[in-house]
Request: fold
Amino acid sequence: MKNESASERYMKLFGWEGSPFVFKILPDLFVGYESEMDSLTGSLCNGCKFSVILGPTGSGKTTLMKNLITKIQGYERVFYVPKPPNDPDGWKRIFTEIVRPGVLRRLLSRGMMNDITIYEVGEWVNKRSRGKRLLLLVDEAHESSRESLEWLRTLTDQVENLSLVMAGLPVFEKRLMEELETFRRRIETRVELTNLTLNETRELIKKRVEWMGGEDVKPFTSSSIQYIFDKTNGFPREILRACNELVQNALDKNVSSIDTDFLRESEHHGKRVAINNLEDLPYRQKSILNILSSGEDMTPTQIVKEISPEEYSDSGNAVRSVNNILRRLVRDKMVTRERKGKAFKYRISPKFQTMFINT
Ligand SMILES: Nc1ncnc2c1ncn2[C@@H]1O[C@H](COP(=O)(O)OP(=O)(O)OP(=O)(O)O)[C@@H](O)[C@H]1O
Ligand SMILES: [Mg+2]
Reply:
């Protein structure tokens, strides 16, 4: 067994051609977020000019954008920008690329591009796009400088038949609100990505397994998928991370089924992925434990107040999300719950309080 390569062991144990749970953007293996996708495609079909996709890191913004590109109809030119440029010249290049004239015309127009100023770009693009519908997708929008966003807004206003979709961390919306209200007011479609459901988590795992030539969700079972869902709160990147850890663990032990026995056994040997290792906990679970680690009893609303406001864009969502996480923490016995008058109050379990202080 020692001489076997990793890929031989994947094949032997699981019948896979390689590792399915790599952090790779695979738009074809997209699952869930149906209403968010419908809302975007619907409004883009109607020519909506400004849309925004918000979500924490790893929630699937880039994957959703790339999947949207494969689905969207009625746009003759689609242009994806992984990261906004920091100066107007960058936008000038992007807007002229959107029109993408033929090679010869591109060579001819290159010279011209140097002659026109950023103020003329809108008109230049309008002339050349000849009524074609254009779609510009800008990822990592929260990284843009204020100046860069102002140019993006102006150019999008000027170019007829252009729709803009931006994706960014929730803090992007807050920035728009504080610094660029004129931009924020133009946004007609806003979707927020949070997490996948249990069924969608299963579907994600299934698609990844089948992508590597495996069958259904094997070697996972309903109970190990439930475990993964609880541990990751259905956050796509965390699901991949958890699956990968369990698979590596199974490879080490030469075990071909990741079921309750396997989880119990791993836990017994201190290898359970969550619970005993605070560093491995998903970020939000950790931050709630951190807040509770003072030892005080708190209601979900009090906890929300302690979380930095840029984490959540509206408070109803925040309380719902915190409640979900608390439910999982209670189930994993990291937190206890007690009714105090009308409200439920939460408190960190003594064992975890000590661990928290020690880390
Ligand atoms: N809906 C989904 N279906 C299947 N896989 C997904 C989905 N969303 C995300 N993933 C997978 O999870 C990982 C993280 O997704 P992605 O990079 O799109 O997140 P992100 O929100 O753009 O994160 P960041 O803010 O860090 O850029 C990727 O490997 C991606 O393939
Ligand atoms: Mg991304």
Q: What stands out?
A: The chain has three domains: 33-192, 196-273, 279-358. Residues 61-62, 139 surround magnesium ion (ligand 2) (CB under 6 Å). The mean pLDDT is 85. Residues 279-358 form a domain with the Arc Repressor Mutant, subunit A fold (CATH 1.10.10.10).
